[in-house]
Specification:
With 217 residues, this protein is α/β, with parallel strands linked by helices. It has a domain at 18-157: NAD(P)-binding Rossmann-like Domain (Rossmann fold). It is built from 8 helices and 8 strands. The chain has helices at 18-23, 26-35, 54-65, 79-85, 117-120, 140-146, 164-177, 193-201, and strands at 45-49, 69-74, 89-92, 105-110, 124-132, 155-157, 184-189, 208-212. Strands 3-2-1-4-5-6 form a 6-stranded parallel β-sheet. It has a two-stranded parallel ribbon with strand order 7-8. Strand 7 (184-189), helix 8 (193-201) and strand 8 form a beta-alpha-beta unit.
Length: 217
């Protein structure tokens, strides 16, 4: 395969392994394309639902880089990890429903698509925005994003992650600065790829799962 030099690729930073490089792109690309759909300002309060996933763990790091005040939703056992990535506050979803809180946010990033605009709307400040990584029930997130009059001043934005090049450039820059790190849960050899998929489909992975390939000389 031949790829033009102006397409979506960059050299791997020297301080990264191949496994780390492979795991640093997809989730981070989707996370960045959620964040760049809003006019994020330093000091704004945001909530990340699903903060331990590939998208969520990247989103927390990007949001910290941009100076947001971050509330992260994840399992309590992962609190230390998520705070190390930049979260200011963690809600343990096994003990507390974050949608029942009386706190409000400028933006809610649902990086696992397990909530909804209807549930999150009371948590949004005036002109606040809800963004999900999923279409939602009956593709409602796409509907609300197009037909804004139905949502009032609080809006739904549906991200279309087209600009891979811009994502890769930012990811590489932050990795080189030590401001972004890849979260890898497990590694599986290629002949265990079915086990890897089964593990991922349980919905409990932390960050990324990597398939390793051995090269025989």
């Amino acid at each position: 395969m031949i790829i033009s030099e102006d397409k979506s690729f960059e050299r791997i930073p020297e301080n990264l392994t191949f496994e780390q490089a492979a795991a640093s792109i997809e989730g981070a690309h989707y996370a960045y394309n959620m964040i760049n759909k809003v006019n994020l300002e330093k000091g704004q309060k945001v909530l990340v639902n699903g903060a331990t996933g590939a998208i969520g763990s990247a989103a927390v790091q990007f949001l910290k880089y941009y100076g947001a005040v971050i509330t992260a939703v994840c399992k309590g056992k992962d609190t230390d990890l998520i705070k190390s990535l930049g979260a200011d506050r963690v809600i343990d979803y096994t003990k507390e429903d974050f949608t029942k809180e009386d706190k409000t946010y400028s933006y809610i990033f649902d990086t696992v698509g397990k909530s909804s605009f209807g549930k999150c709307k009371p948590l949004l400040q005036t002109a606040g925005i809800y963004i999900s990584s999923e279409l939602g029930f009956l593709a409602q997130n796409l509907f609300f994003a197009i037909f804004k009059p139905f949502t009032g001043s609080k809006k739904v934005v549906f991200p279309v992650p087209l600009d891979c090049k811009r994502s890769i450039i930012l990811i590489k820059e932050l990795i080189s600065k030590g401001e972004f790190k890849t979260v890898i849960d497990k590694k599986y050899p290629l002949d265990k790829i079915v086990d890897a998929y089964n593990y991922v489909e349980k919905g409990q992975k932390i960050g990324n799962v990597v398939i390793t390939v051995e090269h025989n000389n």
